[in-house]
Design goal:
Blueprint lengths: L10 E5 L2 E5 L6 E3 L3 H22 L14 H6 L1
């Protein structure tokens, strides 16, 4: 399949059960029907889990939770 923006070849990858078409030339990201809904549902679940972890992993010396990759870094890294 070709990129709608630059006509370069798209590469297909799967991240957390979501198929993502990406263009290595223009760095565009394209989603099929329903894929954005899957991302939103996974983000909501990640956000709820993240809140629980913040309280469990709270480091009293630092007074802040440890840094982790964000949902978006996990998805598109």
């Amino acid at each position: 399949m070709l990129c709608p923006r630059c006509n370069g070849p798209l590469t297909l990858s799967q991240r957390q059960g979501v198929e993502i078409d990406a263009c290595p030339q223009c760095r565009g990201v394209w989603l099929d029907r329903g894929e954005l809904d899957k991302i939103i549902n996974r983000y909501d679940a990640f956000d709820q889990e993240d809140e629980r972890r913040d309280y469990q992993d709270y480091d009293r010396k630092d007074h802040r939770p440890p840094k982790r990759k964000s949902f978006w870094q996990e998805m598109f890294d």
